[in-house]
């Protein structure tokens, strides 16, 4: 059960990262831009995990 949950969470996190637009690379080259883009990537990963958990719990 733990292994299945780990696989599901890992997949959700990966899908959240992959959902980040390709334009996320820092265009201005500033530290602020890079930090903002990193926050967006993490936010997408967390959202992917949350959606996956919601889907799993709704089917229980």
Can you offer a commentary on this structure?
Keywords: Signal. The protein is an all-alpha fold. It has one domain. It is 75% helix and 0% strand. The two termini are 14 Å apart. The model has no long low-confidence stretch (mean pLDDT 74).
Features:
single chain, 60 residues, mainly alpha, 75% helix, signal
Structural class: mainly alpha
Count of helical regions: 2
Radius of gyration: 14 Å
Could you give the distance between the termini?
Answer: 14 Å
What portion of residues is helical? over 70%
Q: Secondary structure elements and their pairing?
A:
Layout: H1 2-18, H2 31-58
Short description:
The protein is 75% helix and 0% strand. It has helices at 2-18, 31-58. Helix 1 (2-18) crosses helix 2.
């Amino acid at each position: 059960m733990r292994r299945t949950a780990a696989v599901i969470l890992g997949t959700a996190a990966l899908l959240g990262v992959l959902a980040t637009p390709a334009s996320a690379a820092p265009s201005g080259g500033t530290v602020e831009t890079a930090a903002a883009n990193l926050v967006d990537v993490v936010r997408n990963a967390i959202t992917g995990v949350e959606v996956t958990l919601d889907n799993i719990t709704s089917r229980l």
